[in-house]
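Case study 2.
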Amino acid sequence: MPAFSRRRRRTAISIAVALIAVLGLGIAVYLTVRTKGSPQQTATAFLTAWQRGDLSAMKAQVLEPPRDFDGIYNAFTKGSQAKRIIIQDIRVRPKAYLNFGETATYYASFTVTLDGPVPYTYDGHLEIIDFDRAWKVHWSPTAIHPELQEVGFSEVRQIRVVPQHDGSSWLVLLETRAKGEQAGRLFADEGLKLAAILADSAQPGVTG
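Prediction:
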């Protein structure tokens, strides 16, 4: 074989080896920095854990859960008298527009049914973000009910489904009543006051 052909062959082999090395490095970098899992998986893991009452599994999906996380969800379940919490129709979509430097963000929508003495159904939503190569729930009170963000949560003691005389029902937010404070007609004997009506329904079991 002519020397020129041998040199060409060696050069081609060297280039091929270099390309394989670069490609391998690129794959390694991609596997290292890519975000694990998916927003759908995170939303499903969080919400199915809520459905089965597994608070530890819920917190594992949350970025910086509040210190009273367990108490918040226990109060919600107890106050609503839900024998079961049923989560359905979990759907995830990306945020349409991101500002410069903003982390990837997705929104999960779902339906919550409180299966108790007064069944109640409402629509909820979650925000899921890419943090440190993992998808995490960016938790706020709206993860429990969309209207909780506006009324606040620091003084919340209970959330309850309250049936009305006309067959409708309310999902209400309650706070502890201060000594001597007027309670109003609904909770005069319970040491509680009505902080907000989160939602109402035309009939029990209808989405509020």
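Confidence is low (pLDDT under 50) at residues 21-32, 203-208.
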